[in-house]
UniProtKB/TrEMBL annotation:
A motif (Q motif) lies at residues 9-37. The keyword Zinc does not apply. PROSITE patterns: HELICASE_ATP_BIND_1 (PS51192), HELICASE_CTER (PS51194), Q_MOTIF (PS51195). It catalyses: ATP + H2O = ADP + phosphate + H(+). This is RNA helicase. Residues 40-216 form the Helicase ATP-binding domain. Its main location: nucleus. Its EC number is 3.6.4.13. Residues 430-439 have a biased composition (Basic and acidic residues).
Length: 439
């Protein structure tokens, strides 16, 4: 059957089915990226694969393309499972699978925390072709939903770990073991790992022996990733800011002539900071949304939709938004809080300057952050320039008093609503909270 033909350099020449090439073309995706060119033919040959490429390089299609091609040759039962650390990323991947396979009546189940367990169980009983899940929620179904619901997982042909470096940390060990335990043995399925950071755990998998009778693992990293940790189109700057007036500087930047129209993500380290900033900026008439683990799932989904549709210009987020999310219009990323892990800076900055577009990243540097900034500069092999668009006198004259008043009102409202009490109860019930939510 000649369904996989194509001219040199396009998806058809990599072995992707003709119907899928048409689907990609309808989505205006015609030229494969480096990781797609390298991995798609090898996955189609039946090889396990570890793919490392910086964020925004097209990793999802690198695994979705060959999986959908193989599925369309024999579209039966549960065919593939994709595991990923955050709900938002799972939703994005499920949307891509659904869009790519829409002409073939594909059935994709999204299995994440914050949604109805009963509805998900009903979906799983219908034997969807692809399951995109966070490990915590899929593990719950494996342990509690019965064989008629999850029995189809025993015959899947593909397992994908997306953002594998996070999934292979201690946070996910138990849930991942439960999920993988119900799947066919390693040698009877194809295992695909994709990551923007090749950690020691990923390297250990690269060097593990290949099961007998199985083709050798294919491992691919886009041009020594460490040297190109951030794209050349990303401008990186820092701003020295006294801790107690960070909100005023943020407001001054977001409303300055240079950035008043810019789409921006503000990254913070704690959910309470995200909530204070969201309320404060809202009081000051900035179109703002937030994304953090304490929000109900429907609110998290609505925030992302509002930001993607530009109904909100600014998204305040914890690191649930630092991984993989593709929001093409982001022009500015501000590290309001700097992470202790330099790789987190790379993932956060990766929300802008995607697919060849330009973008800007600003780090707010308080007194205790200097060593963290130096670690980031070492990691990205580049010195940051000082941000000079906003000056102390302008902040004091224009922003400080009204921002302080708005923050005070926000804190009073949060106290009245007992913000954070639910989280404390949840933590007491489940033991200490880990960095990423498990479901």
């Amino acid at each position: 059957m000649s369904s996989n033909v194509g001219s040199s350099g396009d998806f058809g020449s990599l072995g992707i089915s003709r119907w899928l090439v048409e689907s990609l073309r309808a989505m205006k995706i015609t030229q494969p990226t480096a990781i797609q060119k390298a991995c798609i033919p090898k996955i189609l040959e039946g090889r396990d694969c570890i793919g490392g490429a910086k964020t925004g390089s097209g990793k999802t299609i690198a695994f979705a393309g060959p999986m959908l091609t193989k599925w369309s040759e024999d579209p039966s039962g549960m065919f593939g499972v994709v595991l990923t650390p955050t709900r938002e990323l799972a939703m994005q991947i499920a949307e891509q699978f659904t869009a790519l396979g829409s002409s073939m009546n594909i059935r994709v189940a999204l299995v994440v925390g914050g949604e109805s367990i009963v509805d998900q169980a009903i979906q799983l009983q219908k034997k969807p072709h692809f399951i995109v899940a966070t490990p915590g929620r899929l593990a719950h179904h494996v342990m509690n939903s019965g064989d008629d619901t999850v029995g189809g997982l025993k015959r899947v042909k593909f397992l994908v770990l997306d953002e594998a470096d996070i999934l292979l940390t201690d946070t996910f060990t138990d849930d991942l073991t439960t999920c993988v335990g119900i799947l066919p043995p390693k040698q009877s399925r194809q295992n695909l790992l994709f990551t923007a950071t090749v950690t020691d755990q990923v390297k250990m998998l690269q060097s593990s022996p290949t099961p007998e009778g199985k083709p050798k693992l294919f491992s691919y990293e886009v041009e020594s990733m460490d040297k190109v940790a951030i794209p050349a189109t990303l401008k990186t700057t820092y701003l020295l800011v006294p801790e107690q007036v960070k909100e005023a500087y943020l407001y001054q930047i977001l409303t300055s002539n240079s950035y008043r129209e810019a789409s921006a993500i503000i990254f913070v380290n704690r959910t309470v900071t995200a909530e204070i900033l969201r309320r404060t900026l809202k009081q000051l008439d900035v179109r703002v949304a937030s994304l953090h683990s304490q929000m109900p799932q429907q609110e998290r989904t609505n925030s992302l939709h509002r930001f993607r549709a530009n109904a909100a210009r600014v998204l305040i987020a914890t690191d649930v938004a630092s991984r993989g999310l593709d929001i093409p219009t982001v022009q500015l990323v501000i590290n309001y809080d700097i992470s202790a892990n330099p790789d987190t800076f790379i993932h956060r900055a990766g929300r802008t300057a995607r697919a060849g577009r330009s973008g800007e990243s600003i780090c707010f540097v308080a007194q205790r952050d200097v060593s963290r900034v130096e670690a980031i500069e070492d990691r990205i092999n580049k010195k940051m320039d000082e941000f000079t668009e906003v000056h102390d006198t302008a902040v004091i004259r224009k922003a400080l008093s009204k921002v302080t008043a708005a923050k005070r009102e926000s804190l009073m409202a949060m106290e009245k609503e007992s913000f954070g009490e639910r989280r404390k109860l949840h933590q007491r019930k489940n033991g200490k909270e880990k960095g990423y939510r498990r479901e």
